Amino acid sequence: MTQKNDRPSLSQLKRFSGLDVDVLEVLREAILDGVFQPGDRLNESHIADQLNISRGPVREALRRLEEMGLVVRSPGRGCFVRQYERRDIEELWTLRSVLEQFAIGLASPVATKKDLRHLSEIINKMHQAAAEKEQRKLLKLDFQFHDYLLELANHSLLKETWQSLGIRIQRFLYLQPAIYDNLDKIPQTHEPIVSALKAGDTAKAQEAIEQHISEVAELSLSDQKDLGRKEGFP
């Protein structure tokens, strides 16, 4: 996890500079990776200079990031990386729990042996990442697992909602290293979900994923102090 004392500098954006740069993707990744911290002002001119592009694409990318919930706009002051308060955290986890339990209900009857094998393979990779103390890799594998469950649900509106929510959850988890302090526990909490799916027990799978999300929510709320608001943030 990126800590404040080793925070990347804005100059890191220079490696993406050029006419073909995907500004939205660059800024999204910069926010997720901690180049921009919660409460940081996103200056169009500075970003454009670093990427060697005009301000127009930067302005459009910031608008899209605002729609994604990663950026907030303050009239007369500009755009800032979104900060999270307790209510935001609670809403993230309660909505996630409802969505994923619904997804399990749709996915369970149609999941094939190949699908379940793929989920098990992701968990095996998570165990390996945990053993190697690769927090960032583990987080990405964690999201791959849940993304695949949502794919199995085959519900377009659910998938669209999850993609929007998932970006916020991913950013939030990157801010909270305490959730990933016990790396070995992360893959373990996913195993009951797959075991229940293999047994064809939809209700038990839903219970397992609700328990998994509840545990993460409890940790994130207890670690909320690490997300202190920046002075002057709108």
How would you describe what is shown here?
This protein has a three-stranded antiparallel β-sheet with strand order 1-3-2. The chain is elongated. Helix content is 63%, strand content 4%. The longest helix is centred in the middle third of the chain and has 22 residues, at 86-107. The chain has two domains: 4-83, Arc Repressor Mutant, subunit A; 86-226, GntR ligand-binding domain-like (Four Helix Bundle (Hemerythrin (Met), subunit A), Up-down Bundle). It is mainly α. The chain has nine helices and three strands, in the order αβααββαααααα. Residues 1-8 have low confidence and may be disordered.
SS class: mainly alpha
The portion of residues forming beta strands comes to under 5%
Q: Approximately how much helix is present in the residues?
A: 55-70%
Indicate the multimeric state.
single chain
**What strand line-up does the widest sheet have?**
1-3-2
Question: Which fold does the CATH topology of the largest domain refer to?
Answer: Four Helix Bundle (Hemerythrin (Met), subunit A)
Query: Any low-confidence stretches, pLDDT <50, length ≥5?
Result: 1-8
Main sheet summary: 3 strands, antiparallel
Question: What best-fitting shape do the alpha-carbon axes yield?
Answer: elongated
